[in-house]
Specification:
single chain; about 240 residues; Rossmann fold; disordered N terminus; SGNH_hydro_sf; SGNH_hydro; Lysophospholipase L1-like esterase
Length: about 240
């Protein structure tokens, strides 16, 4: 009987030890304030400062004029119409990059930043397994939490592309949504707001991958819809 109880005790001890290794980011996050979407809500009364981390879509590649027809510019148009204020962008994204580049640039985020938009993952599908991407993406979210504790974090799932290869992005897409939920961030599934039919999708993409002006408008609408629901939630 004593041997049986000892075996149960050891088994429970091992479970607790294993749990400590399974959720390291939660352990780190326990020392940080829970993200309550306060930075983005400042738009009701003032302009806010936001950082963009990501790849080619984050910099609105293939827009006719990224400064005026990119998703961030279109989003500001929607915001200013509704709240008479705007987001002051600091775009640290770069075409052709991976989540690793975002981790490097996240080190530069100012502690007074109000919001951070992460738009990366499509290129990573060719270099990392979903599990590897998950760990790096989680590290990125928690680095942002540490650098700017009061900033709201928005994890953007990038648009689909006209290719059978888009199926390889499915696991990464799901991982971004799960990571955002687990790591106290907000996911924005832009992918789901784009056309499902390949012919219709091709009409809003410039090269089968990057959105054109019409595509970036869809992207800005998708992001704006999420932001407005948070800002007007009253919580």
């Amino acid at each position: 009987m004593i041997i049986k109880n000892k075996a149960i005790f050891l088994s429970l001890t091992m479970l607790f030890i294993m749990a400590g290794f399974i959720i390291p980011h939660k352990a780190q996050g326990a020392q940080l304030p829970i993200n309550t979407a306060t930075g983005i809500k400042k738009l009701k009364t003032a302009d806010i400062n936001a950082v963009i981390l990501g790849d080619s879509i984050a910099v609105s590649q293939d827009a006719s004029d990224p400064l005026t027809t990119g998703w961030d510019s279109d989003l500001n148009t929607l915001i200013s119409r509704k709240y008479s204020h705007r987001i002051l962008w600091n775009n640290k994204a770069k075409s052709g990059t991976l989540v690793d580049y975002c981790l490097q640039r996240a080190e530069e985020i100012d502690s007074k930043t109000d919001a951070v938009f992460i738009c990366v993952g499509r290129n990573d599908r060719n270099f990392y397994t979903p599990g590897q991407f998950c760990l790096k993406y989680s590290d990125l979210i928690w680095m942002v939490h540490r650098k700017a504790p009061k900033a709201d974090i928005f994890c953007i799932v990038e648009p689909p592309m006209v290719s059978s290869d888009d199926s390889s992005f499915t696991a990464i897409r799901s991982q971004i949504i799960v990571n955002a939920f687990n790591d106290q961030a907000n996911s924005i599934d832009v992918w789901s707001d784009f056309p499902i039919k390949q012919r219709d999708l091709a009409d809003v993409l410039s090269d089968g991958l990057h959105p054109n002006d019409a595509g970036y408008k869809i992207m800005s609408y998708s992001i704006g819809k999420k932001l407005f629901s948070i800002i007007d939630s009253g919580k």
